[in-house]
Amino acid sequence: MIELYHCHDARSFRALWTLEEMGLAYRLHLLPFPPRFLAPEYLAQNPLGTIPLLVDGETRMTESSAIVEYLTRKYGADSGLAVEPDEPGFGAWLNALHFGEATLTFPQTLVLRYTRLEPKERRQPQVADDYAKWFLARLKGLEAIVSQSEFVAAGRFTGGDISVAYALLLAQSLGLADRFPPAVAAYWDRMQARPGFIGAKAAQVKASAEQGLTAVPLDQL
Ligand SMILES: N[C@@H](CCC(=O)N[C@@H](CS)C(=O)NCC(=O)O)C(=O)O
After folding, report:
1. Could you give the CA distance from residue 161 to residue 194 in angstroms, rounded to a whole number?
2. Within 6 Å (CB) of ligand 1, which residues are found?
3. Cβ atoms 69, 159 nearer than 8 A
4. How far is the CA of 11 from the centre of ligand 1 (A)?
5. pLDDT tens track for 194-212
6. How far is residue 23's CA from residue 99's CA, in Å, rounded to a whole number?
7. Which pTM was predicted?
8. Engineered SS bond to 12: which of 51, 67, 75, 116, CB 3.0-4.6 Å?
């Protein structure tokens, strides 16, 4: 069975959401955040100490957007979550998968780190503010796409939406959602109403209870 190592609302949420959208069987291992310090035994599974880690037989993956691509291409033929190379939206789909992580999520990790994770004396409000602005400026690309279309690629819900919308979930946790431009805000509302999104949220709460872990949302760190 597919195994997913996950922290509440962290990037592994992309994989969890994909699994839920596709109705695949999986085992969820919930870890405290950051696992590197709070669950050092996890380093034996993933020496990086980061999540996600997806294990599927011999396959072990640690990049959240690549996991979305892997699951949708390997198991998702009927789901429509992958876009095939012969479809017109193929390039837009790949672009969205990478844009969600490399352009929209990475700058927010600096905001998270320098407002919440570092000890108080090492916090850097200027860095956090600069990278929050950097992230918000990068939303212009998404605003242009979702003011023309309900989804980011191929005119239907795909893994590209999961990658991009996860960055919006992180932004919400960091208190940036009230600065989303209007079409992005409406898109974010649509994404949160997806059954897979709701299922993934419920699955992490259930796993927290079963594994005796208190889920600490990022905005309460
Ligand atoms: N590019 C990777 C980044 C993985 C990553 O840095 N995950 C964060 C959580 S969102 C993490 O595990 N941070 C804890 C740490 O760095 O110790 C991905 O998309 O999965």
Report:
1. 11
2. 10-11, 34, 36, 49-52, 63-65, 101
3. yes
4. 7
5. 999 999 999 999 998 888 8
6. 25
7. 0.96
8. 51
> Which residue do the tokens 């980011």 mark?
152
CA 196/CA 16 separation, integer angstroms: 9
Mutate to test the pocket of ligand 1, among 51, 61, 110 (most ligand atoms within 8 A of CB): 51
Mind listing the pLDDT tens digit for each residue in 26-85?
999 999 998 988 999 999 999 999 999 999 999 999 999 999 999 999 998 889 999 999
| Amino acid, single-letter form, for residue 61 | M
- Residue matched to tokens 């600069």: 130
Let me know how long the chain is: 221
CA of 166 to the centre of ligand 1 (A): 13
* Cβ–Cβ under 8 Å, residues 197 and 191: yes
Distance CA 152, CA 146 (A): 7
